[in-house]
Write a structure and sequence with these properties.
Blueprint (H helix, E strand, L loop, with lengths): L8 E11 L5 E4 L4 E4 L8 H7 L7 E7 H5 L7 E5 L13 E5 L5 E9 L3 E5 L8 E13 L2 H6 L9 H6 L2
Antiparallel strand pairs: 1-2, 1-3, 1-9, 4-9, 5-8, 6-7, 7-8
Length: 168
C-alpha cells in the first residue's frame, strides 16, 4: 500500500479557496472532501494533477483559472430590480433564488447587493472572474474499496462539491 496519492487511492482533503488579490478566504469546508483519485472528477484536473504523489500532511496551493471551470463572467446574468418587486424573504445578501428559463431549465441566482430602492442578483458562479488559489491539506490516503471505486467517492459521501460551490 502506497502512502502517496495516485490513481484509485481514496483521498480525503480539507481545502480553502482564497482570492489571490485580496487574500480573503472565499470558500472553506467544515468537513473533509473524500474522493477516489483518478476516478472521480469532483476536483478539476487543474487541481488533481498537483495532488499526484503528495502524502498525508502535505499542504499545497494551486492557482486555478476560473475561466476554465466556470467560463467567462456573463454580465447578462446580473439583474437589478426595484426592491418593492422582491419578496421580503429574498432581501438578504447571499440568499439564493432559483428561477426557470423559457425552456423550464433551473438557474440559481445569488443576491449580491440591495438597498432601500433596489436589489441585485447574479447568476454567475461567485468564483467566476476571480483569480483564486485552492489551498489543500491531505488528510487521508488509502486503497479505495471496490464500492468506492465504482462510486468514485466515499460510500454515503455527502454533500458533494457542486452543492458546496453553488452556495458560495
Amino acid at each position: 500500500m502506497s502512502d502517496t496519492i495516485q490513481n484509485e487511492k481514496f483521498v480525503e482533503l480539507n481545502y480553502k479557496v482564497i482570492d489571490e488579490k485580496t487574500g480573503d478566504v472565499l470558500v472553506t469546508v467544515d468537513f473533509p472532501l473524500g474522493y477516489v483519485h483518478g476516478v472521480n472528477d469532483v476536483l478539476s484536473e487543474q487541481v488533481t494533477k498537483y495532488l499526484d504523489g503528495k502524502k498525508v500532511g502535505d499542504i499545497i496551493e494551486v492557482p486555478v483559472d476560473t475561466k476554465l471551470l466556470y467560463g467567462e463572467r456573463d454580465e447578462s446574468l446580473v439583474f437589478t430590480d426595484h426592491i418593492e418587486n422582491v419578496p421580503e424573504e429574498y432581501r438578504e445578501i447571499g440568499m439564493t433564488i432559483t428561477m426557470e428559463n423559457e425552456k423550464g431549465e433551473p438557474k440559481t441566482f445569488i443576491v449580491t447587493r440591495f438597498d432601500d430602492k433596489t436589489l441585485t442578483i447574479d447568476g454567475n458562479n461567485p468564483l467566476c472572474g476571480r483569480d483564486v488559489v485552492f489551498k489543500l491539506e491531505v488528510l487521508t490516503i488509502r486503497d479505495a474499496t471496490d464500492e468506492e471505486l465504482d462510486l468514485g467517492e466515499a460510500v454515503d459521501a455527502n454533500p458533494d462539491i457542486n452543492d458546496i460551490l453553488s452556495k458560495t
